[in-house]
């Protein structure tokens, strides 16, 4: 990649709009005036670079990084995947942060009042760097569903929050990973706010290859970040 | 070709994951883009504080937003291979808003960076805003009110209608503790902050 190639714009056929009427808190928080297209300068072509110094040895293993006196409760899972750009090129050595509820659907967050138990041995936050091939791997506990106040009997599907940087400030992405076959996906306005043709990209795949015998079920979740704009040869 | 992974909100509970210092965990960054304890070359430039509130379309404080800052050093250099020069600090900050919707960034005033037209841009901070109720983060910029001439010539500010340009300019207040720039982020409404399709 040439360092000064601009990045592709955000693909609004892939991302939800800022205002999703059924997701009520978007109504007052979504910008309504048109976004102003920004020609890319070094301000957009650069972004924070993190080294392995921000990642501790247990940060990728949520079954161990919150342990006080026992293993956390719940179903152990492995979540792994590849971070790539829109040309399929791996995004190596980029920071991946993740946070989630525990097996009972309760967050460590101080504001979470859901009447489900906290697990003293589960924190629910972690981070890792992708390797030279853009791969990441977390070990964790399958998060539980939890209720929220958006509408009567609203429940979030099981999900894991992901935060990624990629090579520049404009490749930044915060998203959520879901699980295959979750019946709550059909009723979740946050998931349903994504354009229909793009939604399933957030549903991880169960993988027997990633699953480890006697240890943990495996799920694969690949992530595609914005990439350098195609060279004239690639343009269609 | 693979297509972009859809964005989703950070939700209400990102704090222990992304700004976990109050939970006794180390985070990757905080509101001090340049730490008070740094000295020497990293201190080249003017120390400033940028503070303000995030407000929703009803002018209510957004108490669960997160602000990220990405900026050049006082010489206009970014710590990134696409710049290629040695910057004097990392240039990234991240902080949550408090119970009043307020945030506070301590940093060095950035120097001018070449624009897409190769002419120097006015000094600015690049900002990403995240919150519950925002399916996508929003990009904006902080410019500085005491850079009148540079702001008037800035290519990006000139993409913005004159009636909205002021939403991108932080107002300087001289305080006993040093220069403080005031920058409120209005997510929606008559005086909505300018956001970019960056
Ligand atoms: Fe969540």
TrEMBL record, chain A:
Q: Which processes are annotated in GO (biological process)?
A: 3,4-dihydroxybenzoate catabolic process
Keyword check for Oxidoreductase? yes
Give the GO molecular function terms.
Answer: ferric iron binding; protocatechuate 3,4-dioxygenase activity
All copies of the Intradiol ring-cleavage dioxygenases domain together span 79-107
The family database entries (PROSITE patterns) matched by this protein are listed as: INTRADIOL_DIOXYGENAS
Annotated keywords:
Dioxygenase, Oxidoreductase
Q: Which family does it belong to?
A: Belongs to the intradiol ring-cleavage dioxygenase family.
What's the name of the protein?
Protocatechuate 3,4-dioxygenase subunit beta
Q: Name the source organism.
A: Skermanella stibiiresistens SB22
TrEMBL record, chain B:
Report the Pfam families cross-referenced here. Answer: Dioxygenase_C
Give the protein family.
Belongs to the intradiol ring-cleavage dioxygenase family.
GO molecular function terms attached to this record: ferric iron binding; protocatechuate 3,4-dioxygenase activity
Known SUPFAM superfamilies for this protein? Aromatic compound dioxygenase
Task: Please provide the record's keywords in A-Z order.
Answer: Dioxygenase, Oxidoreductase
- Residue spans making up a coiled coil are none
**Does the keyword section mention S-adenosyl-L-methionine?**
no
Name under which the protein is recorded: Protocatechuate 3,4-dioxygenase subunit alpha
Give residue ranges for domain Intradiol ring-cleavage dioxygenases.
Answer: 43-189
Q: Which CDD domains does this chain map to?
A: 3_4-PCD_alpha (cd03463)
Q: Which domain of life is it from?
A: Bacteria
């Amino acid at each position: 990649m040439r360092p000064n190639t601009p990045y592709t714009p955000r693909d609004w056929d892939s991302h939800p709009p800022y205002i999703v009427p059924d997701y009520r808190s978007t109504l007052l928080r979504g910008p309504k005036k048109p976004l102003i297209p920004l020609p890319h300068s070094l301000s957009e072509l650069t972004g924070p670079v993190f080294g392995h110094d921000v990642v501790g040895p247990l940060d990728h293993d949520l079954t161990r990084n919150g342990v006080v006196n026992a293993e956390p409760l719940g179903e152990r899972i492995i979540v792994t995947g590849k971070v790539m750009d829109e040309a399929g090129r791996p995004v190596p050595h980029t920071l991946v942060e993740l946070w989630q509820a525990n097996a009972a659907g309760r967050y460590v967050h101080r504001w979470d009042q859901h009447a489900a138990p906290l697990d003293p041995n589960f924190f629910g936050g972690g981070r890792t760097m992708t390797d030279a091939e853009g791969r990441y791997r977390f070990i964790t506990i399958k998060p539980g569903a939890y209720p929220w106040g958006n509408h009567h009997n609203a429940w979030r599907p099981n999900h894991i929050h992901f935060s990624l940087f990629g090579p520049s400030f404009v490749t930044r992405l915060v998203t959520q990973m879901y699980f295959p076959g979750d019946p709550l996906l059909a009723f979740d306005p946050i998931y349903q706010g994504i354009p229909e043709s793009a939604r399933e990209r957030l549903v991880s795949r169960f993988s027997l290859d990633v699953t480890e015998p006697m240890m943990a079920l495996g799920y694969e979740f690949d992530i595609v970040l914005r990439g350098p704009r195609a060279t004239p040869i690639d343009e269609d | 070709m693979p297509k972009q992974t859809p964005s989703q909100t950070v939700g209400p509970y990102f704090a222990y994951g992304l700004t976990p210092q109050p939970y006794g965990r180390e985070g990757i960054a905080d509101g001090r883009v340049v730490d008070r304890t740094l000295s020497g070359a990293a201190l080249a430039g003017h120390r400033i504080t940028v503070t303000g509130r995030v407000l929703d379309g009803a002018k209510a404080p957004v108490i669960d937003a997160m602000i990220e800052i990405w900026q050049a050093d006082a010489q206009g250099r970014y710590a990134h291979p696409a710049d290629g020069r040695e910057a004097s600090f990392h240039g990234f900050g991240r902080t949550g808003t408090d119970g009043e919707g307020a945030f506070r960034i301590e940093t060095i005033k950035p120097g001018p960076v070449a624009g897409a037209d190769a002419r120097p841009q006015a000094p600015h901070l690049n900002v990403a805003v995240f919150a519950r109720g925002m399916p996508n983060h929003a990009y904006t910029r902080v410019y500085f009110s005491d850079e009148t001439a540079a702001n008037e010539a800035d290519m990006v500010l000139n993409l913005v209608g004159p009636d909205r340009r002021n939403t991108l300019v932080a107002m300087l207040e001289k305080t006993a503790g040093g220069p403080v720039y005031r920058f409120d982020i209005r997510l929606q409404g008559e005086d909505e902050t300018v956001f970019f399709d960056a």
